[in-house]
Amino acid sequence: MDPSPSPVEGQSQASPAASPIPDRRSPSPELPLTMTASAILSSLPRDATSALAAAGQFSQEKILVRFKPVGSAPSLSREICKISAAQKFEAVVAYLRRVLKVKDTDSVFLYVNSAFAPSLDEIVGNLHRVS
Where does the UniProt entry say this protein principally localizes (predicted)? Predict the structure, then answer.
């Protein structure tokens, strides 16, 4: 049984070759291309390049960090210190451990704005942007 419709009077039997449906995807998934492998996009647009260049910069080179003791934690003689915005949060923890003379086996808990404890690999400048 032929599923194609029968020709109407006055029309010829020949029909153009069936073209693929444009919105149909190929069976193989498209793999993301890196910019070096892309033939279409050889460089980023000007706006994207300037946005990416400014994204890594911090508004301040140094950030003021204020330490407030909670519970039975000892207070510091200097509550406020400056740290580079590019440093990781682990540098703040190391500084506090050194100043408080805490043993390696003792726990130290630090919170930003008394709200959350960031991971040690978080950048201090990014935490300053959030708070």
Answer: membrane
